[in-house]
Amino acid sequence: MTSTPDAASPVPAADALTPAPGSEWWRTAVIYQIYPRSFADSDGDGLGDLPGITSRLGALADLGVDAIWLSPFMVSPQKDAGYDVADYCDVDPLFGTLADFDAMLERAHGLDIRVIVDLVPNHSSDQHVWFQEALRSAPGSRERARYIFRDGRGENGELPPNNWESVFGGPMWDRVTEPDGTPGQWYLHIFDSSQPDFDWTNPEVREEFRRILRFWLDRGVDGFRVDVAHGLIKKDGLPDYTPADDADSMGGEEQDVPYWGQPGVHDVYRDWHLVLEEYPGHRALCAEAWLPTPDKTALWVRPDEMHQAFNFPYAMTEWDAAALRTVITDSLRAFPAVGAPATWVLSNHDVIRHASRLALTAPSPQGEGIGPDSVAQPIPELGLRRARAATTVMLALPGSAYLYQGEELGLPEAIDIPDDARQDPTWFRTNHEKYGRDGCRVPIPWEAGAPAYGFNQTGLAWLPQPATWADYARDVQEGDARSTLELYKHLLAERRAHELATAPLAWLDEYPDDVLAFQVGTITVIANAGPAPVELPTGRILVASEPFEGRELPADTAVWLTTD
Ligand code: NOJ
């Protein structure tokens, strides 16, 4: 531990948590997640599209991000908002064409913004040509071997092959009718029944995904966010498994789950690493792997595997100084220990937006979402205040950070979505017991006075936008120093100016337990997660998550101080 930094020697050397060395862009990048269906809609059909993204990239350059990650826009029946891919190498007409993609990529690169696309290797859509062929083919055929088909249990195979439960609710198996009309085999789907899992022990599947990677790399993408990167390999024999009652559906808390984090999965990424190395420049793979600790997550980013992994243990940490200190320390040891950057994320399209999540009246497990009848309800003002403080902490941390569209506007979770407008498969597969993730996926507001708040020109929106969102529109925040948008711009500019992404971090231990205090490079960060005001040390306030007078840091507020 270090003591208060003095002006002459602001960077503590001892006990500093030092980022892994390396100059590749992905080690330090701030990456902005675009959820294409909800970002900008050029043709007014109520669903965002690629030309819409291209038209709004200037706003992201102004914000100051280094890269964008696009959730899936490939051909899909949209049963799981595009995470059910029917053709991996073409754009769904809902989102545009391959030419629109190329134009978007060119514009982004012209603005010095890298582009990462989503790759969904665990499962395809049931409309994928391979699955359709499998349905038409016999048990034991080459076509069936690309997926996980098994005979059922019971006298006539009428029971599923094991007891696994889908992440979205209900059994993880569906039974098919054989081409001759008789009840037949069962196929495995970790998610919806429209998302059959590939069999990754099959070399043909591996070869197909090399082809898909090269298809997008040839078009010039800078990397891939890899969906369910911990799920591809299932334990031999597919043994029964019953999760603990309070287990998180994506496996975050569990230790040994036969479909999450099986050791064989790492060979897949070693292979992909080599595919990326065939290309010039630095291309990156980022794992979406829900694992309980930074140490476990770091197994996905060993030097010959992926380059980044989402830090979900950090994302799921509450607004609690001690817990944050632990997860940040663990992350800054675990990732650099394998030569990888730590990553940081607070929101995405699967979790309750952090402006609501950080001030809920009761816990809500990841993926379940909240709605009008949930026990857990957000306390809006407190949530936004904590979210701004939490982001002020996050953007000071060494490594790479992910932002989710709309968080720079301080958007809360949309709670009052009418039941008949909800679309998440979780809502249907749990018989409306769990609301699911629609509340974080609502089209974002650009202009307060325009139809659909500037999302398009017709006013249509695939999920209804709350009336209060006019207040969050980008145009009303632009230029207002107190707005969340200007806070984000300020943080991103100062993060870059002070090279925080590559700076060592050292904790300052003379503060109360509910205060998070650290030195990173030349910046001192103090975040007050407790109720009592905290006296600030010397130093000019460079950024404050909330305006305040004097030198007492109010509750739920964070600052960056400088002695420059
Ligand atoms: C993780 C994605 O982020 C989520 O949105 C999707 O439903 C599942 N994987 C299944 O692909």
From TrEMBL:
Domain Glycosyl hydrolase family 13 catalytic: residue ranges: 33-441
Highest taxon of the lineage: Bacteria
Similarity remark: Belongs to the glycosyl hydrolase 13 family.
Protein name listed in UniProt: Glycoside hydrolase family 13 protein
Gene Ontology biological-process annotations: oligosaccharide catabolic process
GO molecular function ontology, one term from the record: alpha-amylase activity
Pfam families associated with the record: Alpha-amylase (PF00128)
UniProt keywords, alphabetically: Glycoprotein, Hydrolase
PANTHER family in UniProt: ALPHA-AMYLASE FAMILY MEMBER, NEUTRAL AND BASIC AMINO ACID TRANSPORT PROTEIN RBAT
Database matches in Gene3D superfamilies: Glycosidases, Oligo-1,6-glucosidase, Domain 2
